[in-house]
Amino acid sequence: MNVENSVFETHIVSVLVENKPGVLYRVANLFRRRNFNIESISVGPTERKEFSRMTITLNGDNATVEQLVKQLSKIVDVVKISLLNPRNTILRELALIKLHVKDSKVRSDILSYAQIFKGKVVDAAEDTMTVEVIGTPEKINAFLKIASSIGIKEMARTGLTAIERGG
Amino acid sequence: MVIAKLSGAQSLIDSLQKEGVEVIFGLPGGAILPVYDILYESNIRHILVKHEQSAAHMADGYARASGRPGVCMATSGPGATNLVTGIANAYMDSSPVVAITGQVPRTMIGKDAFQEADIIGITTSITKYNFQPRTVAEVPKVVKMAFKLATSGRPGPVLIDIPRDVQVEIDEVDEVEDNHVKVRSNVSPHPLQVKRAVDLLVNAERPIILAGGGIILSNASEALQALAELLLAPVATTLMGKGCFPENHPLSLGVVGMHGSPEANKAILEADVLLAVGCRFSDRTTCNISDFCPDAKIIHVDIDASEIGKNRLVDVPIVGDANITLSKMYEMLTKCLVKREDSLWFKRIQEIREECSSIEVFSRDDGLSPPKILKEVREIVPPDTIVTTEVGQNQMWASLYFKAYKPRTFITSGGLGTMGFGFPAALGAKVAKPDVPVLDIAGDGSFIMTSNMLITSVNENIPVIVLILNNSMLGMVAQWQRLFYNRRYSAVKLVNPDFVKLVEACGANGVRVNSLDELKNALLQALKNDVTTVIDVPVSPEEDVFPMVPPGKGLKNMIFNALKTSSILTKRSSKAPRED
């Protein structure tokens, strides 16, 4: 119960799991059962087809993360768990943002904002434009802030995926 | 290497036999018929239950009495869902049970077919793992893995759900290598952590050992006793640990917790170092956890890393098998410690015992009171008798007043608190240990829940003894209503059948006793009977289990009679006490 433990921060847990049906259910069910509130989870294939990687972010104190890791490691399909150090980790997220386009000024604003954020315009229609932004959650949040001043019609984010540098 | 072409059902039974399975507790149905057809000519004994819940409890009782995994079987849908309570019970108490269920054919799964239930989804959070083999070739691998998982590390239930068409299909089946299964089990403790624990123990002035069910599961009773005697450290157990340390040993304090023994609850709060082994600091053991040994240094040994730090922060965490860890501690301690013959702490423990023995524990009934009955029963039944309990007052009286001397002789539903557990668990234990007397200490409310198993006990020739402490009440609920709800008895009064007639109608022996002498005679006769005997003992419906730590309070607030609860009631304000 020391001070350090009670600090809430974002933790990134990278979990290598067997690539077979039902594994996501087992992991998600564990979070529900043990009352862990996660921020995001992304799942995808790895360099080996028998494994998938789940990248989980959660906001919590150290004791919560420790329990999460210990409970996860009891799931038979979990092969390896790494707690990633955010300072030494490449973090990426992708967001697709569909924006209202009132007039040509807005259209050109969107184009220039997209350029500043190294985003791409991936779709345009009469009264909307869709921008793809890839980057850290902070970068995406910054883009969303400015995008909301224009007017967001719809938005989809992938959740965080991450890999450690070097090694 | 392909060994044969077999049906899924044949492969299942063959694989079970390779695991040494001698008995299955179950009830057949449509989606498991092909397996039952193979069982017909197999030499595995099948015991037909009256409800699948009892099959799971029997497998659980069998496992706890023998240390070997118990197997239960049911059909799909309602058969499978009826197992659920028993599986959850085995999960909470870390009992190695393998449950086998039929499932609708592969092509029907997900179509809401007749008797389809998503038992994989339903049991995911109450099993260590569950399997649904989709090919015949998977069947032997899955069985091997299921038994490995159920029995390794922290034991627990595993479920195998086999679609009906997989049971029927014939295909090539491979020999399964033992090393096919890699079980992650961190059994050997980290030597540095053991060293840290030993340093604490050597310098401890008032060490106490808290021993849980993990001691029994890892067969660590001898190691525990050696360590306790070397340190002259008194041993308290959790309810699940009861029996792992002989309760007639001078260092035994009994069970600690909500209905713990006064000396255990008092002494543990004076400890400066607490060595907790194979336990999980459950709320029924610690009561208010912030008042539980707040100043003691805590060493926590458990094979399940997730238990360490889950409920209580500890000073020395040790992930390891209890037996190996305690043996290593003993080895290290003998190098730096001479066996203590006496100590100030041991004298203090004697003092606590004397203080506690002079406390008057309130008892309403001076005729046949449950404490008297259970002390008498202990005098009569042989020391190796296996006792199971139902859940409620009967269980807490048994915990307080029936001394257990050996591991695996006290079997109770600790974590889940499942009423109806005791009788089928007793039958399972008797199947595992046919030469040992088995006694279910029961309450009338619990016993009635699975009393249809009287029929099984007679038909399958499994004679046990049931002692019903019959207060015609759901006694523990009534006690709470009496103490904390102003005697507003809501839905607790029972109108029971005549138990003697009920029992006799099933072909078993029934007897009603009204005095300790009659009880003694009935029990001696029951020990000789070759059929199940139910002894019905009327007791007062007003009798409370004391001592008790009221809900939300710490161990130091233990009460010995109903008078002190008045202060709790006035503090209660609008909020009723939490029951969890």
Span from first to last CA of chain B? 53 Å
How many strands in all of chain A? 9
| Domain tally of chain B | 3
Number-wise, the strands of chain B total 20
SSE order of chain A, one letter for each helix or strand? EHEEHEEHEEHEE
CATH architecture of the largest domain in chain B: 3-Layer(aba) Sandwich
- Sheet-strand content of chain B, in percent, reads 15-25%
Query: What low-confidence regions of chain B span 5 or more consecutive residues with pLDDT below 50?
Result: 566-580
What is the typical, i.e. mean, pLDDT of chain B? Answer: 94
Structure report:
Chain A is 29% helix and 42% strand. Chain A is of the alpha+beta class and 167 residues long. Chain A has two domains: 3-84, Alpha-Beta Plaits (2-Layer Sandwich), CATH 3.30.70.260; 90-164, ACT-like. Chain A, domain 2 (Alpha-Beta Plaits). In chain A, strand 2 (38-45) and strand 3 form a beta hairpin. In chain A, helix 3 (104-116) runs antiparallel to helix 4. The longest helix of chain A has 14 residues, at 137-150. Chain B is of the alpha/beta class and 580 residues long. Chain B has three domains: 2-180, Thiamin diphosphate (ThDP)-binding fold, Pyr/PP domains (Rossmann fold, 3-Layer(aba) Sandwich), CATH 3.40.50.970; 191-357, TPP-binding domain (Rossmann fold), CATH 3.40.50; 370-538, Rossmann fold. Chain B is built from 23 helices and 20 strands. Chain B has a six-stranded parallel β-sheet with strand order 3-2-4-5-7-6, sandwiched between helices. In chain B, helix 16 links the parallel strand 15 and strand 16 (410-411). In chain B, helix 8 packs across helix 13 (322-336) and helix 11 (262-268) runs antiparallel to helix 14. The longest helix of chain B has 15 residues, at 52-66. Chain B is globular, with a radius of gyration of 24 Å. At the A-B interface, helix 1 and helix 2 of A face loops of B.
